[in-house]
Amino acid sequence: MHMADALLSPAVGGTMLVVSAAALAVAVKKSGAGTLDEKKIPLMGIMGAFVFAAQMINFTIPATGSSGHIGGGVLLAALLGPWPAFITLAVVLLIQCLFFADGGLLAYGCNVFNMGFVSALAAWVFVYRPFLGGKKLSPGRLALTSFLTVVAGLQLGAFCVVLETTLSGVAELPFSAFALLMQPIHLAIGAVEGAATAAVLVFVYRFRPEIIKNPLENKNIPRAVSIKKIAVLFIVLSAAAAGLFSLFASSYPDGLEWSMENTAGTTELERESKIHELSGSLADSAPMPGYAFKNDAENPAGTAAAGLAGSLVTVIAAGGIGLAIAALRARQKSAR
């Protein structure tokens, strides 16, 4: 559901960049004041890499000619807490934009809001936590709640895309026709992502229940609880998804592209402005556009290389931000 620059006017794109930047500033402050403990910092990098790699695996939606991929916001929020999850997903989206030209810079604020704020924050706050917080946790309740949260978050995120294109005056995508395609196709995508998210969270809960319980209780993961095996497992899964499973991703257009094609007859809309030209020129400088070698796009090794490189950069960037937040918190405490 990565939006391209052509779907947005400079006014809408610029406004959403400001909105998302403000939300990220709040997320950094909340993470520093909350429970971003020493065990969650490496998980920010590792789970960020896992989401990056998993997003490369498009799955086919039967009988539609469309495909989808996970967003990962609910998964991250359930494991890290909503504020660190929002930061981590924003890092993933920025790396996808700068290194792989997946979603433009003008559209970055919208993508952060639609895929990060809506699912990692709003859906977690209004669906996930009310269903689970203060109640007896069980694998069944966790599975059902995570499934419903993913579906709700993706439906709201898809509606935000429709609203943003309408506000941008994209005449090729009239509100009603576009919404009538975007909502049901993302309902199907959400069902698949919801099932996958539920499976992962139930596995983690059975193996290390503290990782699931503590964000709900706004507590740190106890020092005595080891996360090494979980960390190693997700590192291996990230490498496998990025370097191998991504080669078998569906070639069908994703839900947004499918909706555009069935509404406007094309997935390639044109917008002419100096800001769009500037953003497009920056996208042209991406080292591996489309998750492929720049001069050899058909080489499957390019997909694997892009996945592994992107996952590594995500580990470093998201983990580094976590360390920086922790260092800032320690400095503030020592200054009091």
What's the architecture in CATH terms? Orthogonal Bundle
Low-confidence stretches: none
Q: Which percent range fits the helix content? A: over 70%
Q: Encode the helix/strand succession as letters.
A: HHEEHHHHHHHHHH
Question: What is the CATH topology assignment?
Answer: Arp2/3 complex 21 kDa subunit ARPC3
Major beta-sheet overview = 2 strands, antiparallel
Q: Report the principal-axis shape.
A: globular
Q: Overall pLDDT, averaged?
A: 92
- The structural domain count equals 1
Q: End-to-end distance, in Å?
A: 44 Å
Give the strand order, joined by hyphens, for the main sheet: 1-2
Radius of gyration, Cα only, in angstroms?
19 Å
Describe the structure.
This protein has helices spanning about 10-35, 40-55, 75-80, 80-100, 110-130, 140-165, 175-205, 210-215, 230-245, 255-265, 275-285, 300-335, and strands spanning about 60, 65-70. By secondary structure, it is an all-alpha fold. It has a single domain (about 5-335), classed as Orthogonal Bundle (Arp2/3 complex 21 kDa subunit ARPC3), CATH 1.10.1760.20. The chain has a two-stranded antiparallel sheet with strand order 1-2.
